[in-house]
């Protein structure tokens, strides 16, 4: 489905820093979680899949096609979706507008509401709201996820969906992903620190210092993470911080 | 009315034909239709161009349409329209000006609209400006709106100028009595070499009067926009003005706010923001499959909606 071949990302900020170092990764599983310490290169990798960041070295293949040179729009139209870690706010664009744009059709209000219901939002309260700062972090997050579901793509990449939301919203978010895991037709990649998200993954990839440190099934990886055998420096409660 | 005038009428007043209720249609400097109703009387002025509109006290859920259409190149006019709105009214007034200039001379419409709004009356005033035509002659509109709000009255003024007006100089002056409220929503888009200046003067004279002046604009190409707002708090009152502009290409946008408190109980706020379209907004829409140009269009349309 998705293959990253010898991917590197080097930032020339005077000191010269390798964000990603010769990453080789194949993603075929229905639900892949990528975890690891902050600053390890996970978000960079996710943005690279969506085409927001270009690798300095290496190639990216999607369903056998080399997409390295393709734009964000072209990749989106091939079937790749991306959910932002910090959902973008718009003045004037409503939740309904955004879901219609995502679905690429003039959905009825009822049709659009279905996607909001999927992410646990009471549709009628939200459909005509502007996607702006009047919405809470948790609400924006769920609307962001609803746009990805509305696209119904072959590959959906979520960049730390749990970031910046409160505990109560998080409980709901987990349910959304559990449901998505059961129902999705496409493949899902989630960047996450959360044990409960890692727990629904078919495969876990651990990235640290720009390299793949470990890769395997949940049964193989999760115990190592929880015992601190991998380079996760902090480990508090259910949250595996990096 | 010919086809061009009908198109202009559609653009400025959302009308396909003559409207229901009271109306006055001015086309190329002359009356092209007028109708008064039981509660709303429209009388042409005798000493100068323009009309007086008298709305009887207690008139509710009625509307007046007074579109102006110009299709003759080189026409310049100055029109005075006075609105006398009785106590306890609840009415909608739709004005608007459409200029189609197919020639080489400047066409110019200047309208001075004065509102005398009675106690506890509620007015929604909608004004749309639109220009079209392939001619090299400029399309110029200079509206002046003078608002007098009596005790407990309310006015919402929605002005829209999205396309085709080469030069506009808008002035709005308002005086608010006790407990009166004025909401102004301006939407403006300029392109090409257009120039637009808006000037708002609001005097919050009465106790507990309030105003909210909101301007959203997009400046494209080499166009220039200037936004001035002057809010004077002369009593216990609340004033808020907000200018939010998207700048594109080689455009220039200026925002010059002025808030003056002449009373210790005046509470006044001004917000102004000018900036290009945020890169992350474009990226988000591109991840939904839109091209950069489509994304830009959606963001601008949403912003001015």
- Decide which structural class fits the backbone of chain A: alpha/beta
Mean pLDDT of chain B: 94
Head-to-tail CA distance between termini of chain B: 30 Å
H/E element sequence of chain B: HEEEEEEEEEEEEEEEEEEEHH
In whole angstroms, the N-to-C terminal distance of chain A is 28 Å
Per CATH, the class of chain A reads Alpha Beta
**CATH superfamily annotation of chain A:** P-loop containing nucleotide triphosphate hydrolases
Please bin the fraction of helical residues of chain B.
Answer: 10-25%
Mean pLDDT over the full residue set of chain A: 87
Biggest chain pair interface:
A-B, 23 and 22 residues
The tally of strands of chain A reads 10
Q: Name the assembly state.
A: heterodimer
Number of helices of chain B: 3
Brief descriptors of the model:
heterodimer, A: 242 residues, alpha/beta, Rossmann fold, 6-stranded mixed sheet, 4-stranded antiparallel sheet, 9 helices, globular, disordered C terminus, B: 305 residues, mainly beta, 10-stranded mixed sheet, 9-stranded mixed sheet, 3 helices
Summarize the structure in words:
The complex is a heterodimer of chains A (242) and B (305). By secondary structure, chain A is α/β, with parallel strands linked by helices. Chain A has a single domain, classed as Rossmann fold. Chain A has 9 helices and 10 strands. In chain A, 43% of the residues are buried. Residues 232-242 of chain A have low confidence and may be disordered. Chain B is mainly beta. In chain B, the strands form 2 sheets. Chain B has a 10-stranded mixed β-sheet. Chain B has a 9-stranded mixed β-sheet with strand order 3-4-6-8-10-12-14-16-18, with no helix packed on it. The longest helix of chain B has 12 residues, at 292-303. Chains A and B meet through α2 and α3 of A and α2 and α3 of B.
